[in-house]
Design brief:
Number of strands: 12
Mean pLDDT: 96
Order of helices and strands: EEEHEEEHEHEHEHEHEHEH
CATH architecture: 3-Layer(aba) Sandwich
Shape: globular
Distance between the termini: 36 Å
CATH superfamily: Ureohydrolase domain
Bound molecules: manganese (II) ion
Radius of gyration: 18 Å
Number of helices: 8
Structural class: alpha/beta
Strand content: 15-25%
Helix content: 25-40%
Length: 322
């Protein structure tokens, strides 16, 4: 299929992420990192047919505009210019083409789009959508050999099924554990209650998932827990907005008290970038209708920008300016 038939480019008049160049045809993509929206999920019930995170990619793109005018400036969170003084080519490919009700087709197109982004040499940065999204995204990495998954989330997401749905937002980490090329996983920010029962916790631990509770991060500090990131040459980061504290990210489906701070999340991402190559990233579960003053979308935009910066500072992307 032609690359332009797999995506819905950003409509003119609406902003791209960080005002990045707009890609309208995946066949023409030339970038170091490619933003791609996946504005849907897999519903568990009738109310979920309209994914509450469907408007999230557009809302995060809009929120990113506040960071555009400082892009070349000194970034104190990275101890240097955000992109380490390098030219980093960012392209925004719009959203995966969605057809309402066609959940299997949407999922297949998501995998195909991520394959094309990777084949072009760009690192996919995915804006969800709900936490069902990493399931089709990670399937596009089956040629990678091996990668470890780092999750930031309040919940472990290890359900086999909910209401008969096996590829929904409660299942991405179990589905990841079933992929041969996923060599291990660490799950940071776990707390409170969610869809997991004791069985799911037992299954995660039996697999070898490292569960790092938010409380442990608060008590010991992020630098004391980063050694829980499994050794790997390549990493995939999946970031559920509810991993953050609801004071920082109220715009989610299931807020859980006691979550991560901005610096805990940022330093965790930075630690991953310093350990190995970030091959993919998603930020999911933002619900703009539940947001307060746009703060969740602003935090999502900033942490995505920070991730690009951490990759540049680790020498993974970027080119010496001409
Ligand atoms: Mn989740």
């Amino acid at each position: 299929m032609r690359g332009r038939n797999l995506i819905s480019p950003i409509p003119s008049g609406l902003p791209s992420f960080l005002n990045a160049e707009r890609c309208k045809n995946l066949d023409d993509l030339e970038a170091d990192v490619a933003i791609i929206g996946v504005p849907f999920g897999v519903p568990y019930d009738l109310a979920g047919m309209r994914s509450p995170s469907a408007p999230a990619p557009a809302a995060i793109r809009a929120a990113s505009q506040r960071f555009v005018r400082h892009l070349g400036h000194y970034d104190f969170d990275l101890d240097g210019p955000t992109f380490a003084g390098q030219d980093v080519r960012i392209a925004d490919c719009g959203d995966v083409l969605m057809q309402s009700g066609d959940f299997e087709g949407n999922s297949q197109r998501t995998t195909e789009v991520v394959r094309r982004l990777r084949a072009s040499g760009a690192v996919p940065l995915v804006l969800g959508g709900d936490h069902a999204i990493p399931i089709p995204v990670m399937r596009a990495y089956d040629d990678i050999g091996s990668m470890a998954v780092v999750q930031l989330d309040a919940h472990i997401d290890w359900r086999h099924e909910v209401n008969g749905i096996t590829e929904g937002l409660s299942s991405p980490m179990r589905r990841a554990s079933e992929l041969e090329f996923v060599s291990g996983m660490a799950q940071f920010g776990i707390r409170g209650t969610g869809s997991a029962r004791k069985q799911e916790v037992d299954d995660a631990l039996a697999y070898g998932a490292r569960l790092i509770k938010a409380e442990e991060i608060h008590e010991r500090g992020i630098s004391a827990v980063i050694d829980q990131i499994p050794d790997s040459e390549t990493y995939y980061i999946t970031f559920d907005a509810d991993g953050l504290d609801p004071t920082l990210a109220p715009g989610v489906n299931t807020p859980a008290l006691g979550g991560l701070t901005y610096y805990q999340a940022a330093r965790l991402i930075q630690a991953v970038a310093e350990r190995g190559r970030i091959a993919g990233y998603d930020f999911v579960e933002v619900v703009p209708d539940n947001d307060v003053g746009g703060i969740t979308c602003m935090v999502a935009a900033r942490l995505t920008l920070f991730t690009i910066g951490a990759m540049a500072h680790a020498g993974q992307i970027g080119h010496q300016p001409a």
